[in-house]
Amino acid sequence: MSNEKSLVLMPGDGIGPEVVGEAARVADWLIARRRLPIRTSEVPYGYTAYKATGEMLPAATAEALNAADAILFGATGGPERDALPMAVRRKGSLLSIRKELGLYANLRPVKPFPALIDSSPLKADVIRNVDMIILRELNGGIYFGEPRGVEDLPDGGRRGFNTEVYTTPEIQRIARVAFRLAEARSGRVCSVDKANVMDCSRLWREEVTALHAAEFPHIELSHMYVDNAAMQIVRRPDQFDVIVTGNIFGDILSDVAAPITGSLGMLPSASLNIAADGSVRRALFEPVHGSAPDIAGKGVANPLGAILSLAMALRHSFAAADAADEVEQAVAAALAGGARTPDLAALGAATLGTRQMGDAVLAALEANA
Ligand code: IPM
Ligand code: MG
User: Fold this and answer.
1) Is the pTM of this model over 0.85?
2) Ligand 2 centroid to 5 CA: how many Å?
3) 184 C-alpha vs ligand 1 centroid, how far in Å?
4) Residue 2 has what pLDDT?
5) pLDDT at 356
6) Which residue of 5, 48, 64, 91 is 20 to 30 Å from 183, comparing CA positions?
7) pLDDT digits (tens, 9 = 90+) for 187-198
8) pLDDT tens readout for residues 124-142
């Protein structure tokens, strides 16, 4: 079947295999029942792969990632992985995959499900109308900037340093994604920087402003310093539509925003390589939560971040918006029916395991079918 597209599952470490396992069941259901022309395969990565091959990212996995229409990734990290030599970790790191595949646009949507409004530590009235997307630049900034390192000083002490760096083209391409996203939403972009202190941020602000004037004057653009943005996300998150920001600010702000959804376990993400014409060249989808070694292997992790990441893959890589809606509605229905993994439950309330939460989503899909 020539029009069949490939979805590569890369479970990784920690709770990755458990949560991707549930997303895979949802994918299988859609492929069978909605006849989606998608072929799935699974590749080893991370500490599991290292044990078997001596490499975190074996050559065959790298090839599969290169050839994939979309990748669904679980998580990486944990004490065993962290104990590996730095060279091994760097070579196959998630950061190197993001860079290698040119995944420069990281979309982190934040929108609470109605059934979880009371699971948030923030007041219901504050979060009820939140529907924002944090667009994080993922290939540049201080994560990759040179020079970087730790050096010995003559006085016996040491000096550690990293470099925050952005060029005009890097700023323009992520800002363009932000403005295009806003065109399809409520038409507002807030660019977050630290232009009152950092030269790199001053350039960021100037370039975003210039691009806005030249190409997107119909979009409402505002600027905010990152410290204020962190506070505003907690104080009045419903003022935001699209937030666009650099790599490290986006890393921090997306964790700040997570409790709006009730739990970090709910957040999906898409990391995209977008061509100039707006088409998606490469894509990796992953829950934001990470490897959670403390609960790995216990069958209690929340698989909804992974399942919602699958929904993002359906929307962005497989032109299957109906199926994506169906998945999101099934998650909403499962939650409305009271399904809660421990991260979402009130103290002392009954909880479901990872597999049972997957069952609840599949049951909701069946009920709608
Ligand atoms: C994230 C994570 C990663 C990051 C870590 C695991 C390197 O925190 O995706 O937000 O900092 O980008
Ligand atoms: Mg992070």
Assistant:
1) yes
2) 29
3) 27
4) 60
5) 98
6) 5
7) 999 999 999 999
8) 999 999 999 999 999 999 9
Which residue of the set 69, 104, 194, 241 is catalytic? 194
Tell me, letter by letter, the H, E, C secondary structure of the chain: CCCCEEEEEEEECCCHHHHHHHHHHHHHHHHHHCCCCEEEEECCCCHHHHHHHCCCCCHHHHHHHHHCCEEEEEECCCHHHHCCCHHHHHHCCHHHHHHHCCCCEEEEEECCCHHHHHHCCCCHHHHCCCCEEEEEECCCHHHCCCCCEEEECCCCCEEEECCCCCCHHHHHHHHHHHHHHHHCCCCEEEEEECCCCCHHHHHHHHHHHHHHHHHCCCCEEEEEEHHHHHHHHHHCHHHCCEEEECHHHHHHHHHHHHHHHCCHHHCCCEEEEECCCCCEEEEEECCCCCCCHHHCCCCCCCCHHHHHHHHHHHHHCCCCHHHHHHHHHHHHHHHHCCCCCCCCCCCCCCCCCHHHHHHHHHHHHHHHC
Ligand nearest to the CA of 81: 1
**Average pLDDT value for the chain:** 96
For this structure, is 118 an active site residue?
Answer: no
